[in-house]
Write a structure and sequence with these properties.
Layout (H helix, E strand, L loop, with lengths): L3 H15 L4 E6 L10 H8 L2 E9 L2 E8 L15 E6 L5 E5 L9 E7 L4 E5 L6 E6 L18 H8 L6 H6 L9 H11 L12 H20 L40 E5 L2 E5 L6
Antiparallel strand pairs: 1-6, 2-3, 3-4, 4-8, 5-7, 6-7, 9-10
Helix pairs in contact: 1-6, 5-6
The chain binds a DNA duplex (16 and 16 nucleotides) through α5.
DNA sequence: CATTTCACCTGGTGGC
DNA sequence: TGCCACCAGGTGAAAT
């Protein structure tokens, strides 16, 4: 489900609600594939630690955790993190902050009870999500493989695609090149840059690459401002839908008129994914 | 190595 | 109403 703007929206929402709170109990469902490190180890690591901050890296939500003696509430947010809980939402994952009496949704696979009484819940019908715990003593902090699309500079961006034979859309989806772009924002940014998804990544001109970089950044930034795209079931940490789906120009608009020229939007399959573009505006 | 395909899951939709 | 085929925002392992 969630790509960079949705994950950013969720991370900000969770951070605002749980920052400084302590995890008093962690419960995990018995679905082994969800856990990159063993569920028992994750629960042990989480219980007693304070959530110092929650932020996004690529499509991952990173919760910074610190061990802290009980009863000192004044400066919890400034504690030095010594562990991380990393949540990947897969296609259908949700990370929600709820009251303890809120009904437990079907497919709830994790519940963290917090000292304040709130709960942090992970819900994921298709179970493509992943939960990981890292102890920073002895282990490495989490790092996304690819570059951040919102931060990358012109030269570095162009270098990512040099010499590559795969289609530009496939390259945009490759998380070890850029992290955070998924099917919606790949299609939308290629539309705004006027580039056909099947074009070879290594054959784009410098001008096209720079148009693409700027299109990606403006599309992602606008989507974050609108709280992400709610195509079917995406909601933020409070269960609220986003609004960027109303701004989509091509994604899931097969056969509908292009917003710029009126030509019907085409759908093809590329890299195994539904791919949408305007045959007139994109060359 | 680079690139492509497919399995992993459940649920929603639309045709018959 | 039921059954079925097909579709879905992601990733990583296996095949090419």
């Amino acid at each position: 489900m969630p790509e960079l703007p949705e994950v950013e929206t969720i991370a900000r929402g969770v951070n605002a609600r749980v920052r400084g709170d302590r995890i008093v109990h962690a419960w995990f469902a018995n679905h082994q594939r969800l856990f990159k490190s063993h569920a028992v180890r994750q629960a042990k690591g989480l219980e007693g630690r304070v959530l110092v901050s929650v932020h996004r890296t690529g499509k991952h939500i990173v919760c910074e955790l610190a061990s802290a003696p009980k009863g000192r509430h004044s400066s919890k947010a400034e504690l030095q993190p010594d562990a991380q809980w990393i949540v990947h939402l897969g296609m259908t994952g949700r990370l929600l902050v709820t009251t303890p009496d809120a009904p437990v949704a079907p497919h709830t696979h994790a519940r963290l009870e917090l000292e304040s009484g709130k709960e942090l819940r992970f819900v994921d019908p298709r179970r493509f999500g992943k939960l990981d715990f890292r102890d920073l003593k002895g282990g490495e902090a989490f790092n996304a493989a690819g570059a951040e699309p919102l931060m990358i500079a012109q030269e570095e961006f162009a270098a990512l695609f040099r010499g590559r034979k795969l289609a530009i859309k496939a390259a945009l989806l490759n998380q070890s090149l850029l992290s955070g772009i998924g099917n919606i924002y790949a299609d939308e940014s290629l539309f705004h840059a006027g580039i056909r998804p099947r074009r070879g990544a290594g054959r784009l001109t410098r001008a096209e690459l720079e148009r693409l970089r700027l299109a990606l950044q403006s599309v992602l930034e606008q989507a974050i401002r609108l709280g992400g795209s709610s195509v079917s079931d995406y909601v933020d940490a409070e269960g609220m839908r986003g609004f960027f789906q109303l701004e989509h120009c091509v994604y899931l608009r097969t056969g509908q008129p292009c917003r710029h020229c009126g030509t019907p939007i085409q759908r093809i399959t590329l890299a195994g994914r539904g791919t949408h573009f305007c045959p007139k505006c994109q060359r």
